[in-house]
Amino acid sequence: MVRWKLKHGAGQLFIYVITSSEIPDGQIEIKHCAFLKQKYYQRHPAFIYGIAGSYKEALDIVLKMFAEADESGMTGDVRGYLNSALGDN
Question: Which one, of 77, 83, 84, lies nearest residue 47 by Cα?
Answer without folding.
Answer: 83
